[in-house]
Amino acid sequence: MKYCTECGAPNDDQSRYCDRCGKDLDEMQKKAEVLRMVPKRESDKYSGLAIAAFIVSLVGLIVFAIICGPISIIFSIVAIVEIRQKKRKGFGMAVAGLVIGVIDIISYFVLMDMFM
Ligand SMILES: [Zn+2]
User: Fold this and answer.
1) How many CA atoms within 13 Å lie on the side-chain side of 42?
2) Which residues neighbour 7 within 8 Å (Cβ) at sequence distance 6 or greater?
3) Angle formed by the axes of helices 48-62 and 91-115, nearest 10°
4) How far is the CA of 33 from the centre of ligand 1 (A)?
5) pLDDT (tens place) for every residue of the chain, 116 residues total
6) Distance, CA 116 to ligand 1 centroid (Å)?
7) Domain range list for the chain
8) Which residues surround ligand 1, an ion (CB under 5 A)?
9) Residue 10 dihedral angles phi and psi, to the nearest 5°
10) If you measure from the C-alpha of residue 45 to the centroid of ligand 1, how many angstroms do you get, rounded to a whole number?
11) Ligand 1 centroid, distance to 19 Cα (angstroms)
12) Distance between CA 82 and CA 77 in Å, rounded?
């Protein structure tokens, strides 16, 4: 049993044209195969780690800079490696997380200096 991609009607495996709408089923199957051959574009996916790194680094600007800073730096580095290997999106976000993570740590020590 194969289904017509045009109208969804079930058709015999042997039938060449759709019983309901007359669409060429063989042609459609060929198209479907071509689509299946195109690898699923992993590169369209965002790196979750890059997003996490970015968010954690932003949190660090407000609270827990000394905790969030190093975490976001680690997340960013792992994210950058992941993005390069798996060709994910989010490189800019990972770099931003890294930079802001460093700023978190610097700001922590600057504040410590100011208050002590
Ligand atoms: Zn049809």
Assistant:
1) 10
2) 18, 20, 21, 23
3) 20
4) 18
5) 888 888 989 998 888 899 999 988 888 677 777 777 666 555 578 899 999 999 999 999 999 989 999 999 999 999 999 999 988 899 999 999 999 999 999 999 998 888 77
6) 77
7) 2-38, 43-115
8) 4, 6-7, 9, 18, 20-21, 23
9) -70, 135
10) 34
11) 7
12) 9
| pLDDT at 39 (0 to 100) | 60
Measured in Å, residue 4 CA sits from the centre of ligand 1 at 5
CB under 8 Å to 51, separation ≥6 — which residues? 90, 93
The alpha carbon of 41 and the centre of ligand 1 are apart by a number of angstroms equal to: 29
Q: Please give the distance, rounded to the nearest whole angstrom, from the Cα atom of residue 39 to the centre of ligand 1.
A: 27
Give the number of other Cβ atoms within 10 Å of residue 77's Cβ: 16
The residue count of the chain comes to 116
Q: What is the pLDDT of residue 42?
A: 52
Give the CA radius of gyration of the chain: 26
Residue 1 corresponds to which amino acid?
Answer: M
Report DSSP state, residue 89.
Answer: B
Write down the pLDDT at residue 75.
Answer: 96
